[in-house]
Amino acid sequence: MNLTTGETSLLYNGSDISEIVWVGQSDTSILYINGTNEEDNGGISLYAGDINAIDEAYLIASLPAPYSGLKAVVTPSGNINFLLSCLAWPNGTAYNEELAEEPLSSARIYTSIYVRHWDTWLTERRNAVFAGTLTGGDRYSLGGSLKNLVTGLANVTRAESPVQPFGDSGDYDITPDGSTVAFLTKNIDLPLSNYTSSQIYLVPHNGSSVPVPINAFSGSSTPPNAKGASARPLFSPDGTKIAYFQMDGISYESDKNKIYVANVNTSHFNITSLAEDWDSTPDQLRWSADGTSLFVAAPDLGNEPLFQVPLTAGPGFKPTNITNAGVVASFYVLPNGNLLVSDSKIWSSRDFYIIGPRGRLVTDLFRSNQVDPELAGLGPTDVSEFYTLGSFTRVQSWVIYPEGFNRSRKYPLAFIVHGGPQGGHYNSWSTRWNFKVWADQGYVVVAPNPTGSTGWGMALQDAIQGNWGSLPYEDLVAVWEHVNSTFEYIDTQNGIEAGASYGGYMTNWIQGHELGRRFKALVTHDGMVNTVASYSTEELWFMQHDMNGTLWANRNEYDEWNPINHVDKWATPHFVVHNELDYRLPIAEGITLFNLLQERGVPSKFLSFPDENHWVLNRENSLVWHREIFAWINHYSGIKEVMPSDQKPPSAQAISPSSHDSTSPASSDTTIVDEEKNETAEEIARSRTDSESEEENQKALNAAWGKHGRTWMWIGELDYTTIYNYQNYAASDFGEIALLGALMTVGTIVAAVLKPPLAKISDVVGRAETYGAVIACYVVSYILCASARSFGQYIGGYIVYSVGQTGMQILNQIIVADITSSRWRGLANALVSLPFMIVPWCSAFIVDGALATIGWRWGIGMFAIIMPVCSLSVIVPLLGFQRRLERVRGGAARVHTKTTIRGFAAQIDLGGMLLLSGGCAMILLPVALAGNANGSWRAPWVPTLIVLGVLCLVGLGVYESRFATKPAMPPRLFKNISVTLAFAIGFLDAFAYSVTHTYLYAWATVVHGLDPRDATFLTYTAGCVQVLTGLGTGFLMYRSRRYKWLLLIGVVVRLIGYGFMMRLRGADNSLAEIIAMQVVQGAGSGAVGTVVIVVAQVVVPRADLAHSTALELLCIYLGNSTGSAIAGTIYTSLFKGRLRFWMDPDTDPAAINRVYDSITAVVLPETGTAQRNAVNHAYSDILRFMTIAALVASAVPMVMVWFLPNLQLSDKHNLAGSEGGVDSGVQDRRGDTGGETPLQKWRRRIRW
C-alpha cells in the first residue's frame, strides 16, 4: 500500500511467503520467511531481497524447524540480528513434528497441571525464542547456528516464550542496535494452572549471560503490587528504556493492565508507573518516534481507540483518545511521528488511515465498505447505541438494524450476550458473531454490555466477581424491559436470545429464570451449565477468582450461580453448540445441557464440530453453524426462511414447536410484511420517509404558527398577565387575600398533574381537537370567575382556567420539540415565549384601565370573547392541514379505532393522574391553609391529609411501574440521570420563583404604594428578563452545542440574586434596587429554565419526548405549587404576628384582620403614618422569610449541576434518536463527557 495515495498493488501471488520485515541496507530492503524448505520437511527458508524486485530475492538459509515470529534489526556493524520462535525440546533444540520419531504408545502421563490448554494436550515441549545473526556484505548469510535464549530457565515450571496458546512475537522484542533481547514467560516459581503471574527477562542477543528478570517479585524497583500477568515488552527507539504492561492480581486474568517503563540496565531497572490511576486497561503499545511518550489502545465505551501517554504522566494523568469510533486492530508509528492505524467497525471489516500524534487525520487510505462490493451500503446508520440504568450503573447496548430497515414495522428482537465475562460487545467487525449478518435475517439486534463488561471502568468489570448470575442478569432484564417499553419497531414477543462462552452460561441461566420465558428460542454456544464441574477446565485460576475461592472452600457460591439447579424451569426451545476441541469448557457441558433439555421434553438441537475449539473458524464449518442456527431461530421467531428451499438444512424441517405459550413459534400477527405484498392502510400511513416527515412537520408548524396565528395568539396571551393581577383584587373584594397562596397552589397542582394526560390526549384525538377543548376550558373559566359570588366559586373557575392554561402550554412545547433539532431547541423555546416581552406592558395598562372603569370582573370576562376569536387563527388552519393530509393519503393519515371508556382512561393514565393530583393536593393544600385553621398545624385534618397525600404518591410509584398499561410517567425516564436532574432543577427553580412572587404584587402595592400598572410592571420584570436571557442562552447553546456550563452560570446568578434580595427587597429600599433584584433573579432563572427543558427533551428517544416534556413541566408546576403553598404558609402563619410586632400594642385586632385579609387602600392605614410603616415592615419581613426559602432551594442545584453530563447538542432531533435514552459519553468521545458522571462514580463507591 502506498501511504501517500492509498493505492494497493500485488507484490507476490503465492502462499509460501508468510512473514516480511523491513530491514537491510536500504529503505526497500526486506527479509522474509518462506514456509517451505527443500532440505527438511517441516522447516522454513529465510530470504532477503528488495520490495520492488521480490522475484529476485535470494535464499539465505534453510532452517530445520517451523520457526515464526520474525523480528530483525541492523546492528551498528551492518549485520542483521534477528529473532524467531518455535517449540523446543527440554534440551533446547527446536522441535519439528515431521522429523520427530513416533512413540510406540499413545499414553499421556502427567504429574502436574496443565494437562491440556485451549485446544491442545500439553507435552514436554515449550515455546522458545531463538536468536541469529546475518553477516553483512553484498549478500547476507547466516553466521553460525540459532541460539535458544530461554533454555535452562526453570524451577517449578520451565520458562516458555511466547506463552501458549495466544502468545506471539509481541511476547519478545530486540533493541534497535540488536544487542539485547526482552522476552516474557510465565512465572517459573508458580504452578501454571493456578496463577496468571508472568515476568519479563533481559538477555544479550548472543546469549553470553543468563536472562535477568526486570520485574521479579524481589526486585529492588519492582512495584510492590505488581505480581500479575505481564504483556507487550517493547524497547524505546534509543534502546535505553523498555515499556510493558503488568497486572497486580496474581490469579486474575482480567485485572487492569498498568503501564510501566524501566531502564535497560540490569543493575538498576528503576521501574516507573505511568497514569496509574487511569480507569482503563490498555492492551496494545508503541513508542512515539522521539521516545518521549507511548501510544496505547484501550477499551473505551464500546470502542477501542488510541491514547497518548507521555513518560512524565503522573498517577492522576488521564489520557485523551486520539481516534474515535471503532476498535484498533493494529497501529505503527511512522518515522515522521505520524501513526498508521488499522481498525474495524461493526459496519466495516478493515479501515486504514494515518493520523498525527494528537489525532488529526492526515490521510484516509482505505475503507473496506467503500472498496469491497460485498460490503457496499454498510455504514454508521446501521448501528446505534443506548444506555439504561442497570443493577447499579448505566448499561450500554448496541442496536443493529436489518437491511431496508423501516421504523414503522416490527422486527423480532435478537438479544445477544457476550462472553468473558470480562469482555464486551465492541464496535468491531467479526467473522464469527457478526451482528449485521444476524440483523439481516430480519431482526433488530440488541447487544448489551452488562456488569463484567470492559471499557466502562474497572468497577463495572470487577463487579462480576461473585455475581455471575445476579448483577449481569439484572442488567439484562433492565435492558430487555427498556427495549420492550421504548422501541415500537422491536417485536419482543417473538424475540430470541443467544450467547457464547460466558454468554452461553448466561443463556443457560436465563433458561431457568423469568427472562427465559420472554424469548421464543435460545442459543448456547460452548457455555457452562454446571459450575460444580468447572474443574474440568484448564486455567483453574479463572473460576477460583470469579467464584471467590476453591470449590471446597466456597462451595455455596458455585451452587448459588449454577444453571443446572434450575433445570425444573427449563421450557424455551434451545439450540446447543459445543465443540470437541474446546478444553476451556469441555464438551461434556454441552452434552449435559442437551441431554437435560431432551429429558425435560424441551425442543432442542445439538451441533458439534470435532475439529473446532472454543470458536468455529473453518469456513465450511462456519457456514453450517450459521445455517443451522438461523434456521432454528427463524422458525421460532416467525421470520421466513432466507435460504432457497432446496438449500435449507434438512434438520430445519424436523423442528416441532412446543405447546407452551412462551415457546411456540411466532404468532400470526407478526407485522413483518413481504415488500412485494400489499400493505395495509395503517402501514401506508406509517411508512413515510424522513424527508416527508420533516416536510409535514414544517407544514404543521406553519399551519399552527403562521404570521396571523402568532399575532392573534400573542393578543390572546394577554389573559395570563392580567388574570394574575386581577386575582389580587378578587381575593381582596371577598376578604380572602390570605387564601391567595392556596389559590395559586390549587391552580398549579391542576396545571402540573394534567400535563402528562393532556399530552396523551393530544396524541389520541389530535392536536387541533385538543386545542379546541383547551379553548373551551378558557371560555368556561372566564365566565365562572367573572360571575363568582364567593371566593370558593372563583377558585372553581380558576381551576378550570388552569386546565386550559396547562393544555395550551404543553401543546405549544410538544409542537416546538417535535419540529426542532436538539441544537436549536433552546432558542426555539425562547422564541415561543417572546410575546411575554410585550404583553405584560400592555396588560399593565389594561389592568389599570379596567380597575378604574369596568372592574376586575369584566376585565376577566372580556377574554371569553377575545380568546376563542384569536384561537381560531390556529385551530382552523391546523384542522384544515389535518384534513388535507388525510385526503392526500387516501384517508390513511389517522387509523381510527373504537376505544372504550376504560381503554381511553388507560391511554391517558387516569389512575396515575388521580393519584398524582390527589397526593399533591393533600400535601400542599394543608400546608397553604394550615395558618387559617383553628389550632393551626395542630388541627387533626392537616397531618391526616398530608399522610394520605404521601401514601398516594407512594402508591403512584407502584401503580406506574406495575399496573399502568400506558404510564404517563414511565419509570424508565427516572432511571436517566440527565432527565432526573433536569426534573429536580426545574422543580427547585420554579419553587424559588414562586415563593418570592406569590405575594410580590401585594407587597409592592402596599409597601411601595405602586398603582396596578406599576405593580404589574414590577412583577413581570423578572419574567421579561427571563425571556431575554432565554434567547441569549438558546443562542449560546446553538453556537457552542453545550449546555452544562450555561446552566451552572444561570444557577450561580440566580443564587446571587436571591442573596442580594435578602437585603435589597425591603420597605426602605428604593424602587431601582428592587427592580435590579428582579433583573438579576430573572437572568438566572432564564438560563436555568431554558436549559432544563432542553435537557429533558434531547436525552430521551422521540417516543418519550412528549412524556419527558410533560413531566418536566409537571415538575416546574409542582415547584410553583409548592412555592406558593410555602408562601401561603408563611403568610398565614406569620403575618399577623409580624403585624402585632410592628404595630402599636393597642391596635384593634379587627384592624389587624382587615390588613391581613385585603390589600385595598380602603382598609390600610394612611400612607406615611406610623401604623402604615408598621404594616410595610411586617409585609417586608414576610417577604424576607419567603426569600430565605428561595435562597435555600437555589443552593441545591449548585451541587446537582456538577453531576449533569455535558453532552454535545447535534443537528438531529435529539441525542437518543429512537434507540433509547442517553446520559453521557456517547456523543463526543474526544470531549469531556467521560464514561461515568461523578454521581455514578459516587453510587459505585457507595455500593462497593
Automatic annotation (TrEMBL):
Residues 654-671 have a biased composition (Low complexity). Its main location: membrane. It is a multi-pass membrane protein. It is found in: Membrane. Gene3D superfamilies: alpha/beta hydrolase, MFS general substrate transporter like domains, TolB, C-terminal domain. Residues 674-691 have a biased composition (Basic and acidic residues). GO terms for cellular component: plasma membrane. PROSITE patterns: MFS. GO terms for biological process: proteolysis. Pfam families: MFS_1, Peptidase_S9. Keywords: Hydrolase, Membrane, Protease, Serine protease, Transmembrane, Transmembrane helix. It comes from the Eukaryota. The chain crosses the membrane at residues 737-758, 770-789, 795-815, 827-846, 858-879, 908-929, 941-961, 973-995, 1015-1038, 1045-1062, 1074-1099, 1111-1134, 1182-1204. Residues 643-699, 1218-1238 are annotated as: Disordered. Residues 705-1208 form the Major facilitator superfamily (MFS) profile domain. GO terms for molecular function: serine-type peptidase activity; siderophore-iron transmembrane transporter activity. Belongs to the peptidase S9C family. This is Dipeptidyl-peptidase V. It comes from Fonsecaea nubica.
